[in-house]
Amino acid sequence: MKIKSELSKIIETALTTANINADEIVISDATKPEFGDYQYNGVMKLAKILKQNPRQIAMNVVEHIDITGMVAKVEVAGPGFINIWLNDNWLATQTTAILEDSRVGVGKVEKPQRVVVDYSGPNMAKQMHVGHLRSSIIGDTLATLLEFLGDEVIRQNHIGDWGTQFGMLIAHLEELGTDGNTQELKDLEVFYKNAKVRFDESEEFANKARDYVVKIQSGDAHCLKLWQSFIDASLGHCEEVYEQLNVNLKKEDVRAESFYNDQLPQVIETLKEKGISTNSNGAECVFLGDDETPIIVQKSDGGFLYATTDLAALNFRDKELKADRICYVVDARQAQHFKQVFTIAKQAGMVKEEVALEHIGFGTMMDKGGKPFKTRDGGTVKLVDLLNEAVVRAKETIKEREAHSDEALDALAKSIGIGAVKYADLSISRESNYIFNLEKMISFEGNTSLYMQYAYARIQSILRKHNAEVSGEIIVGDAIEHRLALMLLKFEDTLSKSAKEATPHTITSYLYDLVTVFMKFYELNPILRDDVDEATKMSRLQLATLTGNVIKKGLEILGIDVVDKI
Ligand code: ARG
User: Fold this and answer.
1) Which residue of 126, 282, 335, 559 has the fewest CB atoms within a 10 Å radius of its CB?
2) Are 399 and 566 within 8 A, CB to CB?
């Protein structure tokens, strides 16, 4: 249910009948229960334009608001705010209507867009690090969310598979045996280390490595084969992480940097032709403005750069993929890079003016000491180890609670441990840095996935205990039921906002509020007690069921499992 747009229509009608013109009507959530459910704060602006007293205008508008259906009461507050209360019967009807709905009342967007979501993007010559973990988690949520809302999503995993380091790596691979199945590739960290050792200790090896760089670039078949087997092994490691994380990125979503290689000369041609780039000391550069550092698109030795590839990718995403919106889920520290390539791409006509280009930046994951997250020996943390640790901890947290078979306990620990890591990442506003703290993440209290999973399991246990069919209508009988029903109906507005702003934390905050209201409802309003009459019992069971359905759908969009028992 799109509550806010329904309310704007009601306000719009009231304004029209009161003979007042307003362009955009914005409805906000009330900040306190005594201010109602929603507020319209646009009168102050209107008063300035009309040169009239805001309170007077507000009174006039309020008189024209239709309070026969959705709205129960309106009141003028403060200098001219309009507070709005929704009607209990309306809430009851609306929630009852979505009891059987697999989309829990969430419609699809009117104008579906084709959206490219660029996420994960690990570098094949390095171990996947926590930055890629964040990108994978946030990007995957965004992709799932947009798809659920009806957009057509094209996932793109822009992996770094090209560059001088590969010469060294494939020279080492060749030394070990050319089949690409060598034991050493099982542990890439060791592989990189040893390749570097060889590079530093042997002049002959180093020369070969340099030689290989040129050879791969010129398309030498033998070198390309070695390179390919190395990429396959490296990508295999990433796929393990995706699998464990429940991240929906497949082989076919990979469109690597190397894919754009043969389009790079054309990028430079276009930039030169349009007079956007200039030669500076042999290098081809774009100067965007006095306070911007120049962007090198081709080095004096002819080599291309990260920005050149991104320009080619932008062109491809516009011309071939025909995207309406392109989202880059990449570390916030690359903000300038994206700002620059977006500007250049539009100037050069590589991307149409109307295509939305968005850098969905995120902050850094820190350790407990507030330093960027690394393993104890200073190396980048192995993601698989990190995730395994979360699962082990989750198991410890829950094993004493209920009797589970070993198998069930393992599955549960995985859902809870991985869910905790993902939820913690998604629940902070994405631009902020945050501290990785497993103890806090795997907790029954606070805004954690376990709190949501526990609420869901608790609802399932109530339904198991009831052990009979649940039927009948929802009745909104008191203030807490009013709040709960309203929260349930706010799901669609929440998802729309989250999709528009690309903010997963909008969803987690909502879930936290929903579960908090549900817990209060459950505390105040007994469900299965003998003295509760049948209709009330059914209504409360229905409210609980619907709450469970919304939690489940919300967590599903975040890529987190629900569990029936904890
Ligand atoms: N490989 C890059 C990195 O690790 C991320 C790629 C992001 N996507 C892009 N189109 N630039 O920083």
Assistant:
1) 282
2) no
Alpha carbons 58 and 46: distance in angstroms, whole number = 10
- The CATH number covering residue 49 comes to 3.30.1360.70
Evaluate whether 345 touches 307 at the Cβ level (below 8 Å).
no
CA angle 52–53–55, rounded 5-degree value: 140
Find the residues whose C-beta lies inside 6 A of ligand 1: 118, 121, 123, 158, 160, 310, 313, 328, 330
Which of 86, 107, 140 is where one domain is finished?
86
Probe target for ligand 1 pocket from 259, 314, 330, with the most ligand atoms within 8 Å of CB = 330
Domain boundary among 27, 57, 86: 86
The contacts of residue 449 (CB under 8 Å, 6+ apart) are 416, 419, 420, 422, 423, 424, 441, 555, 560
What is the three-state SS of 419-442? HHHHHHHHHCCCCCCEECCHHHHC
**CA dist 307 → 260, 313, 314 (Å):** 12, 10, 10
State which residues form the domain around 42. 3-86
Sign of the C-alpha dihedral, residues 7, 13, 16, 18?
A: negative
pLDDT digits (tens, 9 = 90+) for 501-539: 999 999 999 999 999 999 999 999 999 999 999 999 999
Q: How many domains does the chain have?
A: 2
8 A C-beta contact, residue 299 and residue 305: yes
Asked if the structure places residue 45 within a domain, the reply is yes
Which of ligand 1's atoms lies nearest the C-alpha of 131? 4
Per-residue pLDDT band at 218 (split at 50, 70, 90): confident
Q: For residue 384, what pLDDT band results from cuts at 50, 70 and 90?
A: confident
Residue 551, domain member (yes or no):
no
Confidence of residue 180 (pLDDT cuts 50, 70, 90): low
Interatomic CA distance for residues 373 and 152, integer angstroms: 35
Nearest to 437 by CA among 449, 416, 421: 421
In a domain, 477, yes or no: no
Among protein residues, the one with the nearest Cα to ligand 1's atom 5 is: 121
